[in-house]
Hints:
Blueprint: H1 2-18, E1 21-29, E2 32-39, H2 47-62, E3 68-71
Helix pairs in contact: 1-2
Amino acid sequence: xxxxxxxxxxxxxxxxxxxxxxxxxxxxxxxxxxxxxxxxxxxxxxxxxxxxxxxxxxxxxxxxxxxxxxxxxx
Length: 74
């Protein structure tokens, strides 16, 4: 399951890169995917839209078992 999640994230990465942002997979634990958004995404006022309406929805389409996506600041 983790490999499928990473694959979806890698497919999303170019879209974030086009706007100066990036995404990094951190871990999958207890049904939640932990990612780190960086670059332009980190301080964007639309980060929640990107995270929940974009990234989370795309991952759930491929891996319906996940409960959600959490952005972490490392």
